[in-house]
Write a structure and sequence with these properties.
alpha+beta, 2 domains, 5-stranded antiparallel β-sheet, 10 helices
Length: 273
């Protein structure tokens, strides 16, 4: 399937001018929900879920809730999640996202009615309550028990977010999506999240020197160098094999990736700490 449309400015509209949430979520070719359902491994599923949540919730008062939710997603979808459980978890995420879709459709209808009476206002005071539906699905006890049983049966010991994972992935996403997911892992590590010891074949570690956190990624695939470098450089200082790019442009990333020889090691210090 095609990638979903993450550009809010070009989202489909209803005849009344509201976002067409039904199309955005359900469109078979490029909808949010088919995108979740088509994930083939834990890395894709986790990255796609985080991307959609980050796209839907962009207001300042959403930040804390999104951080908590992201932590739950990382806990529910570790790299070593058995392949047979991926569709089960994906269905739980889809179910919760459908509740978010229904809530937004309901609010759009209410807004249309208010416009008819001249009392329209953009009210998202309870918007973050829809996030609770996803947390409810993620924390579903029966689902967690089934996943845990499956992991034990497969000989996997799941300790939780504090675990130092070192399990290589079964499959690798395409270069562009790999870069995006790697950036997510590094951003999460920079906020104090547990470092995924080996994500996408890349060795990760975090360092804290004099109060400044740096995330180091060793073995970044050359095919993902430009996209990964460009994404990280927009949000902090970046060194690739001890070289720093000249500016933040994509051309600067192309240049430094071309000049860096051998295995690629990224060192990233985020601006916001």
């Amino acid at each position: 399937m095609s990638l979903p449309n993450f550009d809010k400015e070009t989202w489909p509209k209803t005849p009344t001018g509201n976002t067409d949430w039904e199309v955005l979520f359900e469109q078979p070719k490029d909808g949010f929900l088919p995108y979740i359902e088509s994930a083939e491994n834990p890395v894709e599923l986790r990255g796609r879920a985080l991307k959609i949540i980050g796209t839907l919730y962009t207001r300042k008062d959403d930040t804390d809730e999104i951080e908590r939710l992201s932590g739950e997603i990382y806990e529910l979808i570790p790299d070593e999640l058995a392949g047979k459980h991926v569709p089960v978890v994906a269905r739980a995420v889809v179910q919760a996202l459908r509740e978010i879709k229904a809530y937004r459709i309901k609010k759009a209808h209410e807004f249309d009615l208010q416009k008819l009476t001249g009392a329209a206002k953009d009210d998202r005071r309870s918007e973050t309550t829809t996030l609770q539906s996803l947390k409810k699905a993620i924390n579903n006890r029966k689902l967690r028990q089934n996943l845990l049983i499956g992991m034990i049966a497969a000989g996997i010991i799941f300790i939780g977010l504090s675990t130092y994972f070192a399990v290589p992935l079964i499959d690798k996403p395409e270069d562009g999506e790999l870069a995006y997911n790697l950036i997510l892992e590094m951003e999460y590590a920079a906020t104090g999240g547990a470092v995924n010891g080996k994500a996408y074949g890349v060795h990760l570690r975090s360092e804290n020197k004099l109060g400044n956190i740096a995330v180091v990624a060793a073995g970044v695939p050359r095919a993902s160098c430009i996209d990964t470098a460009w994404g990280l450089r927009q949000k902090g200082q970046l060194f690739i094999n001890s070289l720093s790019p000249d500016g933040k442009s994509r051309a600067a990333m192309e240049k430094i990736c071309a000049e860096s020889s051998g295995k690629l090691t990224f060192r990233w210090v985020p601006d916001k700490q």
